[in-house]
Specification:
Blueprint (H helix, E strand, L loop, with lengths): L2 E2 L7 E2 L2 E16 L2 E19 L9 E19 L4 E12 L2 E7 L5
Length: 110
């Protein structure tokens, strides 16, 4: 079961609906004999239980919806490192409910 712990409040269950669109285009570049794909995605998050993210301007701020736009580089067959396998790396911008964030990711959330 997932959940989150807002500062100064009890733990809350987390229920979220996620929908997204991902577009990847093969490039002419390769890494370790793997074609690099350039991708972008748009994601919509709807939280059934509103998340508390107090901000400086609104200490009672609660989020029910967020969006994300991102760009990524990926390969079809993961590159094996000692501690993990890597098939994607990307940078996303999340926004909604008065909160903004830049996110480094290694997989798609859907």
């Amino acid at each position: 079961m997932s959940g989150y712990s807002p500062e100064g409040a009890a733990n809350q269950p987390l229920s979220v609906f996620v929908a997204g669109v991902n577009l990847e285009i093969p490039s002419e570049y390769k890494i370790l004999d793997r074609t690099i794909y350039v991708g972008t995605h748009l994601i919509y998050y709807f939280y059934f239980t509103r998340l508390r993210f107090p901000t400086q301007n609104d200490t009672t701020n609660k989020i029910s919806e967020q969006g994300e736009v991102a760009f990524s580089l990926s390969v079809r067959k993961a590159i094996n490192f000692e501690l993990f396998d890597l098939d994607r790396i990307g940078l996303g911008y999340q926004f909604g409910g008065g909160v903004q964030a830049v996110r480094l990711f290694f997989t798609l959330p859907y």
